[in-house]
Design a protein that fits this description.
By secondary structure, this protein is α/β, with parallel strands linked by helices. The protein is 43% helix and 13% strand. Strands 1, 2, 3, 4, 5, 6, 7, 8, 9, 10 and 11 form an eleven-stranded parallel beta sheet that branches. β2, α2 and β3 (69-72) form a beta-alpha-beta unit. The protein starts with 14 loop residues before the first strand and ends in a 7-residue tail after the last helix.
Length: 302
């Protein structure tokens, strides 16, 4: 089914769940993590923006799971300095037996300068320096016996190049299978590539696109995502009125299970080792649609 995993050092499985868990209690999040593992998903991805600390969440979930990889998609490098990030990484790896997938990203100027009141630097320079600082940072306790991979939230060519040179791969977000093909070419055959894909099991075009536009609104206002989409052949008109049908359909795979599964297969065929599904709620609110999670579960035939 699709392309065989080629990443030599790390195999995190082929299908995971990317989910905003801030609308769930810690008890509900624990139940969700255990359920996704039981359904055969191999990784659970959580973001970092304006909610809970992702490392606290993943450390908590590590006790309720056995083999599930626990991933940040992404951890903001402006949220903690390189020494603190290294410490958090080792702590979760120690608690989980090396199941942390550390996705790192530069976030967005609006989030960093506006909300966090930090100086937003050039993304490539900031990430390169941060990785070097993490490597050199002092860590006194014994290292965990096993450590998971470090991935960059990379979109455009130069950040993907840095992911190839200085990390274990990339976790692109808000992308298409065409981007996956480009990312694989830049990363080369041996780096881990784990794109996020939004899915919505509403079959009628009007309601599906309405919910998709509601979800996409924030992202379309962020230059990092817009600029990346422009390199994929979209034009300024595609961003108007909440996004053209062409853009909405490219970002959100909606419809019946066969149609959505075909999109997942496109990512695998384009070079993805792992696809992180974000199962959008039918009401457009943050969180996950549990019926959709079940529908694509590997142990349910998904």
């Amino acid at each position: 089914m699709g392309r065989e995993v080629v990443a030599a050092a790390f195999n995190i499985g082929k299908l995971g769940i990317w989910s905003w868990l801030d609308s769930s209690s810690y008890t509900e999040a624990t139940e969700f993590a255990a359920a996704t593992e039981a359904m055969g998903y191999t990784a659970l991805w959580v973001p970092e923006a304006v909610g809970r600390d992702p490392f606290v969440m993943l450390a908590h979930l590590s006790a309720a799971t056995k083999d599930l990889y626990l991933a940040t998609g992404i951890a903001n490098i402006y949220a903690r300095d390189a020494m603190a990030m290294k410490s958090a990484r080792h702590a979760v790896d120690e608690l989980s037996g090396g199941r942390l997938v550390l996705g790192l990203g530069v976030s967005h100027a609006e989030m960093v300068s506006g909300l966090r009141q930090h100086e937003y630097q050039g993304p490539l320079t900031a990430m390169r320096g941060y990785l070097e600082q993490m490597e050199q940072a002092l860590y006194v306790p014994a290292l965990p016996q096993r450590s998971g991979p470090v991935l960059l939230g990379a979109l455009r060519d130069r950040m993907l190049g840095l992911a190839a040179a200085a990390a274990d791969g990339a976790h692109p977000y808000f992308v298409t299978p065409e981007h996956t093909a480009r990312a694989r070419k830049i990363l080369g055959p041996d780096k881990l590539l784990a794109p996020e894909q939004k899915v919505l099991t509403i079959r009628e075009p009007g309601p599906a696109r309405s919910v998709a536009r509601q979800h996409m609104a924030t992202y379309l206002g962020l230059p990092n995502y817009r600029n990346n989409l422009l390199t994929l052949g979209f034009v300024a008109e595609d961003f108007e009125h909440g996004g053209s049908n062409r853009l909405v359909d490219a970002i959100v795979a909606w419809g019946d299970e066969h149609t959505i599964m075909a999109r997942i297969e496109e990512h695998w065929q384009a070079g993805a080792d792992h696809v992180a599904l974000q199962c959008l709620r039918h009401d457009g609110e943050p969180g996950f649609e549990m019926d959709t999670v079940r529908a694509f579960a590997p142990r349910n035939g998904g």
